[in-house]
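Recall the central idea of this unit: under ordinary conditions, the amino acid sequence of a chain determines the structure it adopts. In this exercise we apply that idea directly, starting from the sequence alone.
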Amino acid sequence: MRLIPYILYLILISFHVVILADLTSIAGVKIDLAAFIILTVAMYKGELAALWFGFLAGLTAGATLPDAIGWYALFGAVLGLTASRVKDRMNIEAVAAKLVIVFVGVILFNFAVSSVIQAEGLGALWWRDIPAGALYTTVLAAIFFAIKHGYLTGQRFKSIF
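Accordingly, the structure predicted from this sequence is:
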């Protein structure tokens, strides 16, 4: 197992949480990059790598909230393990299947984290912020998977314009 890509993923998550989260938000809706990277690692790597990376990514994403850092780590590990198990039992060769896993995974991760951190305002979060954030993250995932699977290349992009 090579560690350098995982360390770079964790650096990207921490950079996003500290600096880029506010810059990439649209009308207060933010990309959940930690959940997206956890799900991507779970889809392309093994179960143990997804579990440990989910734990470390949860620690990294929750570092700004010291009271909830353990919850972030727990939910990140559960998300990685669950996505890896779903990947093993499903055929996820299609990009649409991967996008469904990303959408559902981000919704569940955000709902679990929000229910622990902000339990009193969960109704407003569930109807407004959580689905919009999951949709925004799924759009990012669609662009990522289109590039990864060769549906969106530099040559095709140049032919559009």
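Residues 122-148 form the longest helix (27 residues).
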